[in-house]
Amino acid sequence: MPFLPYYDHIDPGQGGSSMVIPELPRPVLDRPQVFTCSLCHEDFPSYEHWFQHRFEAHPYRRPLLVLGSREVNTPRFVVTTTLKPKQIQAINAEICRLDGQTISPATLAHRLATAKSGFFKVELVGAEGKLKVEYEISIEIATTEHASLVEQEFARLYTSGGVSVTSISGFIQATAGARTAQRYVDGLAAYLYGLLAKDQRGGTILSQEQGRARFNEAHQALAEIDRPLATVVAGIVSFQLNAFSKNEGLVAVPRLRVAMRWFDSVRKTGLLGAIEECDSTLAPTAHVPLDSSTDEVLTWMGLSPSKISALTRQIEKRMQQDDWLPEDRIKAKVLLASIYESEGAITKAAQVARGFRHDPVFGRLAERLISDKKDSADE
Ligand SMILES: [Zn+2]
Question: Would the keyword Zinc turn up in this protein's UniProt record (predicted)?
Answer without folding.
Answer: yes
